[in-house]
Amino acid sequence: MSDLRITEAFLYMDYLCFRALCCKGPPPARPEYDLVCIGLTGSGKTSLLSKLCSESPDNVVSTTGFSIKAVPFQNAILNVKELGGADNIRKYWSRYYQGSQGVIFVLDSASSGDDLEAARNELHSALQHPQLCTLPFLILANHQDKPAARSVQEIKKYFELEPLARGKRWILQPCSLDDMDALKDSFSQLINLLEEKDHEAVRM
């Protein structure tokens, strides 16, 4: 092969590399989803969201009204509106449901019987609320690292999720601050449900 042919071959390879690196355009924007996060005070909502945002969960103060966090994942950004879980705030939760595309419900799996009953009632109310009943739900049984934590099977049975949520999109997952891989996997499953709902809307 002549020197000219060799030079042309190298120039063409350089051109292909340049196109691959510089001419493919910006990466596609990650989809964003607006979610509402609810649960009783002490369930750990704020700590979990702070940890997902790579913030220190130390000295976390319970949300008294509402706060919004943009939680980044590789394939989506979740704009999470966290609502305070105190008795005097829960009655106003429904005012903040509009525009939500999914729901995160956090419960303390090691809580007292009274608090677990209150969480059960709030979850039932959310699952049946007109603005939420068709949305994907991620239900997190938090504080699994505590000795008194109830298992996922116990939570599912006590909360009567099988009969109540039949036909709905929901995920029940155990979690704790000590197992971030499991927590991130739970949110990945929620993102899959959100994407499925998006695709269904496009087909309609």
From TrEMBL:
Coiled coil: none annotated. GTP binds at residues 39-46, 85, 142-145. Mg(2+) binds at residues 46, 63. GO terms for molecular function: GTP binding; GTPase activity; metal ion binding. Keywords: GTP-binding, Magnesium, Metal-binding, Nucleotide-binding. It comes from the Eukaryota. InterPro entries: ARL15 (IPR042292), P-loop_NTPase (IPR027417), Small_GTPase_ARF/SAR (IPR006689). Belongs to the small GTPase superfamily. Arf family. This is ADP-ribosylation factor-like protein 15. It comes from Homo sapiens (Human).
